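Quick look at the format.
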Amino acid sequence: MIKHSKSLFIVGVHYFRGIVCVLLLIAASPLQAGDVFWQLSSPATGTWLTPSNWSTLSLPTSADRAFIINDGTATIGSGSVDVLEIVLGATLSGTLSQSGGTVDVDQFNIDLLGVLDFTSGSLTVGSQFNLFGTFDVTGSSGSFVAEDNSFIDFSQGTLLGSGGMSFTGGVGSTLLLPQGVDPNVFFSSFSTQGDVFNVSGTKLIVPFGFTLDITGDRPDLIRVEGILQPEGSPASPQSLTFDEGGVEVAPGGLFDMHGASLTLRTDSSVIGGELRDVGTFTIADRTDDDITFTQSSGTTDINGSVRIGYATAGSSNPHGTFNMDGGSLSIGGTMSVGTGNQQSFTSVFSEGTFRQTAGTTSVGSSLIVANQRFATGGVELLGGTVSVGGNVTLASGMDSDGTLILAGATLDVTGDVTVGRSAGNSTGQLTQNDGDFSLNAITVYSGSRYDLTGGTLTIGDRFDLTGIFDFGGGNATITLADNGVVEWSTGTLTGVASSTNYTAGVDSQSFFPAGFNPFTPDYSPDRFLDA
């Protein structure tokens, strides 16, 4: 959770309920020592510094909790107030008007019917400020000081006025602001050595110019406009798991993992800015997870591997989706789509989808689709460019189902492409109706198929076929490099039309099924061997 926030939010909620309980019990039991109540009710107004205005007939001290919850109004225009806690409003209203002097308080709670009217003087909060009512700083020339490790929440209630009050935050302090409030504009002067957020409903914003260290996510979606990083960064960053609110990296924002791993169990996105230096990136690893990560622009940099739909030893049926709609994605290791760490004969399912409509994707090692038993994986390349520095395998797990659709994108594979496996009831499906596909070698096993109805296929070394290669009567273009080998005689070759173009290089060899006539108008092999 975000530093300081978990325990403080719980205290704030429980404390408000506690106020209601106090009111109900006042008439039935003696007041606790340390609880001091304001006595003047509306329309009377009195000064805080008059002892007779308080239930104890003495001023609240640094060991007391001061309550103004009787429709009354207390004023502070001069002098010094030092109190443990202030509570304004509950079932009845309560108002504190400060126009001067100094107030030092450890905890300040403005409940739903509470009002703090702050026009001048200084207010210092030691640990916690919770706003659920109204904090009015209109025309203020006062100063607000949040001490080290304090938690100041202006986001839950009504914050009025701007441009007058100054704000100073101590080391490790946390300030929450309503969405749209720029602290550099709202306050006459603003400085902090802590964390600053904008908050509205289910979205928490890390604004430009600020850095937030976290140990995990929170129920609110975190929108990154400044810098977000794991606790311990940069020397010893913690791995992060987002399973509540998720994260949204906005234009200009930076989510820097400093080499640590990131697991998403809730929808997240990069809509600009940068997701940087991630170790292992996992999308969906819990039972029945259905998680989507979307990149519409910006950059995502993964040093290690990407796992989309990852079944662990304790999970079943996770479904992860990576939508690549723009920007650039760089993966240093392997991209696995529909994967897991289960034993090969364990009946645990996983499902993953990688869909690209635009942008650039670079995979440093291999692209693996459905390598888990009973896994389902799908890759849809509808636009942009994709390069794979190693091999591509579809349906390499027993009883798995892996698909790759190429329709308008450019796919460049440095290594080999394998569709299906030689045994194990796996089903691999490679479909290309457009786009450019280049590779070193390809093998299509029995029970699997390659449907090529459009676009171009460039083969650097060889094509081995024991499954089905279907041209569907389309107008695809195939080029075999010099010294390459095409072995189609052991599989099923179908759907070839006169619009299918095939060109083989110098000293290449092409083997066709018996009775197949390769001499279409655009066929020009250097050497033809009829099996």
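Next, a different chain entirely:
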Amino acid sequence: MKNHLSLRSAGRNGWLAFAALLLPFIAVIIFCIASGVPDLARAGDGALLEISTRSTAAGRVLTGPYSRYEFHHPGPAYFFVRIPLYYLFGRSGSASYLTVSLICMFCLGGVFLQLKKCGHRLMPVFFCLFAAIFLWSLKQAIWLSDWNPFVIIFPLLLTFVSFTAVAAGFHRYLPIAVAAGSFSVQTHIGSLPSVAAAAIFAAVFLVIRFLKRSEGGVPPSADSSIAKSILIASITAVIFWAPVLLYEVTSSSGGNLSEILRFFREVSPELSLEKSFSIWVDILSRIEVSIIGGESLRRMGILFHIKSIIVVVRVILLFTCCCFLYRKNRTSFTLIAGEMLLLLHLTAFISITQLRGEPLAYLFMWFTILGLLSWMVVLSSIVELFAIFKSEKMWRWIIQVCSLIVIVFSILNTSSIWNKPANSPFDPLSYHDGQVMALSDSLSCYFSSQDECNWVIVPVQHDLWPIMTGLVNSLDKEGWNVNVASYFTFMTRIQQGVNDIQVYLVPDSCRIPHGSEILFRYENILIYR
């Protein structure tokens, strides 16, 4: 009876750690709803995501978010996920934070439940521990962002864990892996190499099980269950990718997939192996550097060397753990997770080497989850390999300590959401772009006094494009027929009309053509026609 009660207590503590992990996202949801889900005036990428969400809902565009390389990411799965809450709350800009929070909670919950089913009893608690530290190391500007390089972080986490579970024999999770992987690839094509590698890794194990069937190694019931999982996963893939293929075959100007293939065929990678390694190390060491204090190491001039040591040591630890686990139990979920992570470290590096254009770190921010999973696997391996951790008393102690640490970091993560200067651009729950608000109100009043009904916002300088997209988004929601400048139409996929009237955005200090009509000024922006 005492042992039974201790198991129940340990289980409750595991759920306590998971509940604490979700605290920041629950706080965002409660605060946002309590505030009335205000319609934030957003500029730049946030405005473009809103425009694409409405375009997807209307069936005009079935592509993913735009890329700075002038193609769109493969598919509209992210926009379909955004649509319900966006329209439920009256096309409010802050509804996206509700959606992002729910995506994160769903993915974290999926990983937690799979680890409870597939791994040993401490693994889900270790996951909660490192996930809480992971959130703290990335800061809320990343894990609460609806921008597509960031919103895929937790779906990819679910993808990799689900494919690992499939490889370990829990094939019922294959549809979840396909759904999360499809969402990630459609939202950011940079995740394709790693998702494909994880899928192939799991497929190899599935094929091995099918081959064992002919040798009588798999009972008929298990064989039928595998086939059922594959069937459901196939249907899931069709549902996710049908809109992509539909847009590809019906687009008169060439499909989005064709544009992506053309771009990668015509533009060669520009990064050297040395530069690729530098980026790879920088992103993969994000969690550890946040803990030990990267700024002091930077001042000492040894930051990159420390990052390199961290990543190399972590890979060596993973490899060593896999070797010992293989000798002990070749079917262990922990072993297969370690092998998967070694593969993903390699595909992460390959992804960077294929980058075209400027190597911006945010494009690969999702690599950071490899650090989270790696340390989870290393600690889980230690628990499995050393007899000292077999004690029930030791397990209960570890769970309680981990749960306490998760609670502390979750409180820090939750408080950090509001712990910023007033009207900070990194305050997602109350930030309005003042220029977009003032200029859109003025333009709306001006449009009301005119007979024309078709308008184009033209930024004279490229760095004014975020304000342009903010104005287009705000005015479009009011019902005005307004579009972006012709050389920015790749962002929205909406073509201009022949009779559109152009209004120009310029810095207040710039000269304007003689005879132009100055509409108004606000701060450092002038608008003329």
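The longest strand covers residues 501-507.

See the schema section for token definitions.
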